[in-house]
Amino acid sequence: MSTEQAIRDSVDDAAAAVGSVWPIHSFVTANPLSGFEDQPFAEAVAEAADILGGRGYPSPETFRQALARGQIDRDILDAELAAAGYDADPEALLSRMDTTAGTESPDRDAAEERVDHVLTKWLSSFLDEGRAHWSLPDRDLGFYGVFRTFAAHDGQIPDAGVVADLPATPTETIEAVLEPYPQDQWPTIFEEQLAALPGWTGFIKQRAANGGQWQSRYPITLTGYLAARLALLDAVGADLAPAEDPDGERETDQLSEAFLTAWEATYREELVESVAAESESLAGSEPSGRPDAQLVFCIDTRSEVLRRHLEDAGDYETHGYAGFFGIPMEYEGYDAEVSVTACPPIANAQHHITDEPVDAEQEAEYDYLTGIREAAAEIVESIETNAATAYGFVESAGSGYGLALASRTLVPGRVHDFLDSVDDTVPDEHDFCRPSVDDLTLGEKVGYAETAFDLMGWDRFARLVVFTGHASQTANNPFDSSLDCGACAGNPGGPSARVLAAICNEDAVRAELRDRGVEIPEDTVFLAGQHNTTTDEVELYDGDVPESHQADLQQLREDLGTAREGATAERTDAADAARETERKAADWAETRPEWGLAGNAGFVVGPSELAAGLDLDGRAFLHSYDWTTDPYGDALEAIMTAPMVVTQWINAQYYFSTVDTGTYGSGSKITHNPVGNVGVYQGNGGDLMTGLPLQSLMAADDEPYHQPLRLSTVIHAPVDTVEDILADNEDVAQLLDNGWLSLTVVDPTQDHAAFHYAGALSWTPVTGDGATVDTSVEASPANADD
Q: pTM here?
């Protein structure tokens, strides 16, 4: 292996400590400690604290509040503390933790701070995605090429060291700067320097790995970035010798692990008891008649609330399925300038789907009206970015402009009504466009449809089947994409729903499905919809629904309205809850239009009738699955290796953003400063913030709304099937063995008994009161055939 390649490989290895960061316009939730998932959780957070400086556990005050509210069962806590070797009173232990927690990191070296200041200026200019009015020249040379060309013209960069005469390649620069240091120190130096600005490093890492139009036009690599950083450090005379290893023994972390485990066990006990009781109550029951309609929602926790209220409103059957509906695609809207990835990072986008116009009259009307709206938006943008123009505009616009601003602030609900009425005059894209599914082969279409029905365990179809994506609505929020569909890479899920509905309505697809044993009645019509998670409205894309189904459709609309009233009342204290959600959606001063997935703590995998009997308080992801239709466990394996892993990512980001919003989150929105359409700073510069903002997680600065718990997964299936899947998928088993999430199986073949995964493919039976017993079983307690 060449020296150049060895350096590149070493840089890539060092970057594993830094989690990938996606651009804020397509916010993808990910575990910020994903590079540590091959380690036990306790070891991982300790090492991450050394490298990144972040807190790995909730604060003592957070535990104190949870204990006072009864969220931590004292008996469970006493058992966990005893197992960890502590017999003192929990309050006394929390007081002890108060004295040792929160040790501040040492101040950064002045030379490194100077380099950070210069480097972030270069990065923000180079990585800008279309926001800058004056772009950095010659970006096609790549980051290192531009830096090498123009560094001499930057008055903040000393004309000293390697930077005075930069070598032609990044690896040559790295070798030149590190020549005084032993080569066995280089990997540690790489790791420390890449972790110095983890936000920018994570963004570069993601962009280099996933490509895209910006990367193809203006390339940047981790090696190129590190070379520029090392050259700047050399120029200011910084000492690059690795820091001494800190003492890894932390009593606070040991106590925190015990408190956290007890908190999680308290939540899990109630969840498992509910699932087991519902499983037992359904035993031997026959399926009811054909439902009035079936609706497939994303597994998103916000869908659970609306699903529950819809099932109360009528004879409806709801299902949970990953919100990209199994279509790994890039999507390009009718008038979009670029395509967006509409599938989770765990899947590769295999298809480029566009919206193709099919109604010329509506297309022309849309073009005319949106053209006017875009022209107005350009004027506003010009005002916002040009102070002189802004003063002149306000001077001439006078009271009319002031009235518009006041309305936005004082009566946002009426602004919402006005914007709704304006939108009603503009045709929706889905009214005159159809997704370009003709580019998919028949085999691909049939495969996507069959996979969806197999994973959800369907064996019957209603007259109306609605694939329901979701999206959020907010007036002024750089993090708006974090509230959209995580399975669609932070984009709305409606387009994915439209694609699967179009596929399932094709005669050729239905005929092939019939040959494969999937019988879809002739009177079944598939359509798409989109759930607005801010207001709980569901828009139905019903252009292809025939007259024969209009009565069914009208009844569904009415019942969706009823469900909306119930769902908004559950999550909003206002007297008119639905109206309050509309106000929040239109209020440009609203820091928290909705809570998003805050509160998520569980993932339930089981049949739709099981979920229908559960009230999970909007805290659990729900994926439909029927073990009786999956004799070989193939469908369950697909769920455990994809949706379960993705929900763990989401859960981990909420967890770490809550326990340390400064390091792993993005701090307060009040001091956010968007940069380059790629992220936000805190204040006027520095590192990109990497996670969720404080307002999405906290009821107050010192009071989390989101309970920071690791994910508790509960699967309704034979335990031996689950064990076989774990035996065949070491990566998934490793996540469980290392404590990044937990797994409990409710086995319907063993009197609905529950078994908690104890690690190393062993199980601990759960007693009737939800507690685990001391003994573990090395193999499955019984086979499904017993």
A: 0.92
